[in-house]
Amino acid sequence: xxxxxxxxxxxxxxxxxxxxxxxxxxxxxxxxxxxxxxxxxxxxxxxxxxxxxxxxxxxxxxxxxxxxxxxxxxxxxxxxxxxxxxxxxxxxxxxxxxxxxxxxxxxxxxxxxxxxxxxxxxxxxxxxxxxxxxxxxxxxxxxxxxxxxxxxxxxxxxxxxxxxxxxxxxxxxxxxxxxxxxxxxxxxxxxxxxxxxxxxxxxxxxxxxxxxxxxxxxxxxxxxxxxxxxxxxxxxxxxxxxxxxxxxxxxxxxxxxxxxxxxxxxxxxxxxxxxxxxxxxxxxxxxxxxxxxxxxxxxxxxxxxxxxxxxxxxxxxxxxxxxxxxxxxxxxxxxxxxxxxxxxxxxxxxxxxxxxxxxxxxxxxxxxxxxxxxxxxxxxxxxxxxxxxxxxxxxxxxxxxxxxxxxxxxxxxxxxxxxxxxxxxxxxxxxxxxxxxxxxxxxxxxxxxxxxxxxxxxxxxxxxxxxxxxxxxxx
Length: 475
Hints:
The chain is mainly α. Helix content is 81%, strand content 3%. The protein has one domain. The protein has a two-stranded antiparallel ribbon. β1 (197-202) and β2 (209-215) form a beta hairpin.
């Protein structure tokens, strides 16, 4: 590496001067692997949606109707991890590697307990959830089964998320990215085996056939395939964190000991994020209820379009992850001189990248939705709503990356309330009003407006000094 990520992070931690070129280089070097990791997770959703889409509109609708609920569960797991990963970044920035390892041990055990409790809640509600969401009786069985499998594997998802986040906050973005890409390949293999029944394919130009064995589990197979891919990735992620990481691997003389100050700090960081996830996913569930009466085609188009669009905004989440690492380590190292510049640098990069992805979304919408379903009605409706959403991408990037900046600073309360205000005061009322006259297109117009408003609010907070004053008080 020319000036490698490790060397640049060492300069940051040891108080050496970083030129603007080096700051930009460090941002890009951390962002690229994180972007690939985020994109790979969306590719997995593409794989599931595409394979299930070939089972018909009912299969896609079954997954779509519980999608917002799975986002809620996943969001809560992510929030729990955030409380500890931010502290890992700050301890490493302060060159307190022993303290960082203590956070790793406490964090993994705490999030495992949390996700196990969440799993039990998910199992309990899985049977009646699709009915409560207003799904048609024809898809309720598959929707319940999909959600049940997802809930059972929540501890696996949680440990994968936490271990990957801790490796990323230590500056190792490349390995989690590689493991996420591997997880995509495993998802294809497991899905091919579990979704479809045993079938024979003709070998071109001959009378021979190739028998492909399958379990024929349909929608349930998609859930199991993804869960098994997550399981393999989680085991490897934990191995590289606890055994191979130079900074964070376990030491025999260092034992697990819960420290009240560390747990309180984790709760202070994670609680607003978790509350935001609950209320915002509640809003997503409310959006599902707004869409559900529009019919199976609208439900499927809505779900598949969310998956298609996510390929465009996942780069923003990757840059946001890099921002959390950079800001967290800068704060730990006492480099307040860098926090503002790195905050704007990462946010500007995110807006630039997602402006490009917005153009891709607008012009490539027919192709992107076409990958997920052969149904002509779903493809036509999906293309229309994706083109509406393309106009929101730059400002959506501002809110995503700025949120990563604030999390690195441990400033999560006010940004969470800003997101909640936008969702409940702008998106939901506007969607309910526009759906009456414009159907699913009206729901996505409301989404576009809300994301633009949210981006403006996050840029205003980034421009101010309140989040930096919070750092000063706590240091």
